[in-house]
Amino acid sequence: MRVAFAGTPRAALPSLEAILRSRHEVVAVITRPDAPAGRGRQNSVSPVGERAAEAGIEVLKPAKPRDPDFLDRLRAIAPDCCPVTAYGALLPQAALDIPPEGWINLHFSLLPAWRGAAPVQHALLHGDDITGATTFRIVKELDAGPVFGVVTELIRPADTAGDLLGRIAVSGAELLVATLDGIESGDLRAVPQPSEGVSLAPKISVDDAQVDWTLPAPAIDRLIRACTPAPGAWTVLDGARLKLGPVRLLDQDAPPLGPGELQADRDGVLVGTGTSPVLLGEAQPAGKRRMTAVEWARGLRLDAREPHPAAAAGRGQPRPRLG
Question: Which residues contact 56 (CB under 8 A, 6 or more apart)?
Fold first, then answer.
């Protein structure tokens, strides 16, 4: 088939590469407009747009998919089908009506679970054991179209959103090509999603990524992994923001610490939660590089700020506390 692929971030690259290797002809790539990126905040081409240009494929970057010039160009290109992976903009009905075989989306969840912008993050945040990817025909309602196929992926105990998305993007790309093959041959039919089991996965904001140390340790572990690498989990120490890498859960023999309370020594940095403490992995103070928690604590001399044993009785210096 003649296809116009729509995608934007790095997670969409495996899909584009898989389609380029397939028997289908990529006649155009649709991506989001160039946007500021990096420390210099200069306009940069999306990863998908950059790869398409390297391959000599026409790249369309509509400010909005309802723009008349974009719709006219897409009609002129006349794709049979428009596969989509993480494009990042809602498609109007006028665009959906152009390709005869429709727009086929690769979504990173097992629909109808986790419809929305952040399915991988929400699967981790809510402690799911399994997730995957789904191909479906796009309709006006968000992620609600009929399903062509699924691929599953086990969630590992230490998975971050980046780890999990990386694996699903690769397996999902093969599913997307198989879906295009089945549509072309006529052997594949989409089936409606069940009405039960619908859950929503809105984008996780920077505010959502602040750690609440009164939560149980497993919930904090899931939040930090769900926010890694983006938007990045964070907390506050002495009024300054501190980004955090994944933590490690400890057994019940860990020393008792209040929520957010720090204890540092040469072997590691513990922080109290609503249940048992967790072991910090990495930390990144504002304006500085990411470093191990031990390096960070050494730079702040947290070990020198540990309380005198009399502090428990109301005397001595209290331990520093994250908030």
Answer: none
